[in-house]
């Protein structure tokens, strides 16, 4: 399940805990839950977002084992952060400089992460939820998620979405696929659970909806 409400101590103490989590990330065999926990703390305590970005820059500048498991995990968390949070303008400028340096060697795997992160930071808006476990897994591979939408009177449609895809963008694609572009009707996505059914706001990120389902 997605992380629930947490209790926190002081920002200083939480920053220390996050640093310890980053250290643990180097050797973690299954880093996904730990990554989601770090992201959740940053969502709950926004002042720590810049701190984590700066720590990730430090850890990926001169890694002890370039391209090793620890280095890879840092870049994967970096990728998840870039699709979830925008840092403050001064830190963003610092990040872009760091990413530009890494992308000078396009053949390396880390350069591919750097290019992905730089592009993501151009699109990222405030998230309501941290990435789901599934989203983290696909971000670690720099891929898109497949979202299944059930359409009345038509087969279910599978749509590839990114962390930045809105409900309006998916609705437009489905209208085009179903040949309804000339229809005078209005179309929207609905979120349905056992308790309720409600329309999804046009600017809502589909990734956030999927996290709520998780």
UniProtKB/TrEMBL annotation:
Residues 145-214 form the FERM domain. It holds the Pfam family RA_2. One of its GO terms (cellular component) is cytoskeleton. One of its GO terms (biological process) is signal transduction. InterPro entries: Actin_motor_Myosin (IPR051724), FERM_domain (IPR000299), MyTH4_dom (IPR000857), MyTH4_dom_sf (IPR038185), RA_dom (IPR000159). Residues 1-140 form the MyTH4 domain. Residues 143-214 form the Ras-associating domain. Signal peptide: none annotated. This is MYO10 protein. It comes from Halcyon senegalensis.
